[in-house]
Every structure is written in C-alpha cells, then in structure tokens.
Amino acid sequence: MTRIVVIGGVAAGMSAASQAKRRKPEAEVIALERGPYVSYGACGMPYNIEDPARDIEDLVVITPEQFRKMRGIDARVRHAATAIDTQAKRVTVRDSAREYTLDYDKLVVATGATAVRPPFPGLDLPGVFLLRELTDGDAVKRHIADGRPKRAAIIGAGYIGMEMAEALAERGLQVTVLEKAPQALPGFEPAIAGLVAEELARQSVELRTGVSVQGIEAAGKGLRVATDAGGVECELVLVSVGVRPNVALAKQSGIALGETGAIAVDDHQRTNVADVYAAGDCAEAWHRVLKRPVYIPLGTTANKQGKVAGANAAGADEAFGGIVGSAGFKVFDLEVGRTGLGGAEIERYGLDAISAVSRHASRGHHYPGGVRLTTVLFAERGSGRLLGAQMAGADVVAKRIDVLAAALQAGMTLADVEALDLTYAPPFAPVYDPLLIAAGVARKALAKA
Fold first, then answer.
1. Angle at CA of residue 390, ends 441 and 448, nearest 5°
2. Alpha helices of 186-296 — where are they, by DSSP H?
3. Residue 43 catalytic?
4. Is the pLDDT of residue 253 over 80?
5. Is the Cβ–Cβ distance between 235 and 222 less than 8 Å?
6. Helix and strand numbers, DSSP H then E, in the chain
C-alpha cells in the first residue's frame, strides 16, 4: 500500500491530504500536526476575538475525528515531525509520550510560517502575545476575559495589526499602534496608507509611526512598551511584525530553499528531493507578473498549492499556475485591497513604470450610500501593461480588486481595463465604474510620461 505522509495540518497540509486520498483512495494518508488543531481558519481570529461570546474552536472547519471517519485520513494532532531522512524515506515523529518513525512513499511538507519574534526583551512576559495559531487567539481571548485590560499596544501596522486594532477597540480597549516605518501599511502607497491613518484617528486609535520599539517591561500591574520616542503603558501587547517560512526541518533534511528563504518548488510543487513536495506558507510561489518565485504567504495560495501537491503525490500531473499577489482587509469602516506590484516592488526589481492616483464615487450620484474610492494603478511605461493596483474606501473594494487581479492574470493593458464592460446600476456603480476612471487617469499619466 502506498503511504503518503503530510507534515502540517492546516490549510496546505489538509488540502494536500484530502486531495491525495481523493485521487488515490487505496493509499494510506497520514497528516502530522504539532498543535492541537487541524483545518482551521486562522484569518478569522481577529473577528473571533472581537466577539466574546464565540469560542475560538468555532474557527475549526474539520476535526481530526471527522477527517478519520469521513475522509479516511489519519490526522494526528500533537505529533511533531522532528527529522526527515530523505534517503531512507523516513520521518521521525514525537508526540507527548514517545518518539517513532514513519516510512513514506511520498511526502508533502506543509510546515507553514512562524510569527517573527523581534530581538528585544520582554516577549515572554505575561500579557504579551503573538497571533499565529488558534492557541494564540485563545490566549488573547482568555487574557481579555480574565485580566480585563483597558489599554493595548500593537507593535506593527500591517494587515493583522490593523484588524486587531479594530477587534481590541471593539472590545473596549484603548489602542495604540506602533510602527517602525514612516507610515501604516509598509508597502502600500501613501494615498492608501493615509486613509488608513485617518480611519484609525476617527475611531480613536492612536497611531505612532517612525518609532522603534526597544523592549517590553513589567510596570506595576501592567506593562510598558519602551520606544525611542517614549513609552506606552498598557495591560496587553500584541506583537505583529510579520511571519517567516518555517523551514528549519526542510533545511536540515537537504530540501533546497529559494532566494526568498522559503522552500523552492516547481509548478508541480516538487522540491529538489525525489518524492518530496512542499506547499503553503513554507514554500515559494511563482509570481505571474514578475515571472519569478516570491514569498507571499496567504491562505488562498496555501490551499491551492496543497491541492496540487496532494494530487501529484497521489500520481497526478497537475500544475499550480502561480499568483498575482492579491490581498485585502478591513479596518473599522474602511476596506483596503491590493493586487500585483506596488511602488516598492517596482523599485526593487528595477521596472520602468508609472503610477496614477484617482478618486471616484462608488455608486450612482443619486443613489444613497456611495463613497469616494481611492485607486492607485501601476503600469509599464511604453506598453501600458497593468502591473498592479491598490484601493481603499468604504464600499466594495475587495471585489473591484478582484477584477484587476483577473486583468493582471490576463496580461491586460490600461486600455484593455478601460474598455471592460462592467456592471452598471446605481446601487452598485456609476456609469463609469471607479476602475474605468482609474484606468483612464493612468492612461493620461502614461501618455505624459
């Protein structure tokens, strides 16, 4: 009997295990997860934390028992893979009681990513949290319920920092966000980041940019976050400064890493080692605009890569077509989205491009509820090929970004985007949708460049 072993039991791992079993029902499929949960929606944690009535386990999609009974997958929680012998095709596993080995015919590495732990003191103090796994979310909820903190400091103004600023404010905490970069949302254009800063201020969340955290220390019954621009007194600290691929196990096993530091894979999710695949937040992905591997860890990519890896581990011949880097989030009443390249990436890779900012109403002028949307488009000088987009506003941002993601994947130019036959009805859009206006503004900027 063929044995397929999957290391990692969240998005990529369980997608791989499920697809392998579906493609090859007679195979023995074993999924190893070091934590207590498999198949959960980590991206939903800020919204779960915001609601004190919800249990953190509401985010679990399928339990290990359900995987065994309904899908025939041996999902083992609290079983950590500690070594891979790629010559003998064997994985060493440790659970709470013993250490054992598992031989495999095919192996999928889906070890995910770990939260970055900055090199300053105080991260292990009570009341200081990172937010990556369900156990982290549970710890935050318990601290709010039991400790009743009144003030919170969030270190990092990225996606999670923004979502948690809303969640903690909604729980009644006074929130201060600390960001080392000169603006919130590093990597976004100032026109977008400025709107986020305005929304935080409108919701009484203090944003301090351009500050460097030096450490966290106990202060009376609470905590103090020390920075180069003064301290912040609080009772809860969330450290959210990014993630890095969890690749120590792969690296020790001779599985090659790419330039990004994540596991290098081809379009079939194969690594450099025979019969070993990798997928999800531990692996690189092919960027369809840049035409090179990148590291952009997102749940959508993890599920798709895991599906391809699992299918191919079961003998299929499937390929993952790559990504364009689409993402979105909301902070209070403001929606923010992006796809493709931004100014930072364009500069980093030395591309010749223009950018253009436009602002336009989201609905027909005579229909209530419309707002002004701000859009930034990036296009290649000369060809006019769309390279990326960013948008912010309070009305249907993510789905408009999806249109531009499709345009990127199709290799459209600004002229192509401006000619799109988009839906018109006053409740949904004006006659000229903000995307069409943005493309026209960018075309004019391109003509002057």
1. 25
2. 190-202, 248-252
3. yes
4. yes
5. yes
6. 12, 25
Question: Under 8 Å CB-to-CB from 44, ≥6 apart: which residues?
Answer: 59
Closest CA to 16 of 366, 224, 314, 249: 314
Rounded Cα distance, 343 and 5, in Å: 41
Q: CA 357 to CA 359: how far, in whole Å? A: 7
Q: How many CB atoms lie within 10 A of CB 131?
A: 21
Strand runs (DSSP E) across 311-385, as ranges?
Answer: 327-331, 334-340, 353-361, 372-380
Q: Where are the beta strands (DSSP E) in 269-385?
A: 276-278, 285-287, 292-294, 327-331, 334-340, 353-361, 372-380
- 176 — pLDDT class (breaks 50, 70, 90): very high
Percent of residues, the chain, with pLDDT higher than 90: 93
Provide the 3-class DSSP secondary structure of residue 331.
strand
- For residue 136, count other CB atoms closer than 10 A to its CB: 18
> How much is the CA Rg of the chain, to the nearest whole Å?
23
Q: What is the pLDDT of residues 98-144, one digit of tens each?
A: 999 999 999 999 999 999 999 999 999 999 999 999 999 999 999 99
For residue 365, the model assigns a pLDDT of 81
Classify 379 as helix, strand or coil. Answer: strand
Q: Which is catalytic among the residues 23, 35, 36, 43?
A: 43
47, with CB counted inside 10 A (0-12, 13-18, 19+), is middle
Helices (H), 69-189: 134-147, 159-170
- Structure-token match 């100014």, residue found: 343
Q: Please report the DSSP string for 132-167 in residue order.
A: SSHHHHHHHHHHHHHH--SEEEEE--SHHHHHHHHH
For residue 69, what pLDDT band results from cuts at 50, 70 and 90?
very high
Q: What angle in degrees, to the nearest 10, is found between the helix axes of 398-409 and 434-448?
A: 50
Q: How far is residue 128's CA from residue 42's CA, in Å, rounded to a whole number?
A: 19
Is pTM, for the whole model, over 0.85? yes
Helix crossing, 11-23 with 299-313: angle to 10°?
30
Q: Minimal CA–CA distance to 81: which of 71, 91, 89, 68?
A: 91
Count CB neighbours of 246 within 10 A.
20
pLDDT in tens, 221-252: 999 999 999 999 999 999 999 999 999 999 99
| Each residue's pLDDT tens digit, 364-391 | 888 888 889 999 999 999 999 999 999 9
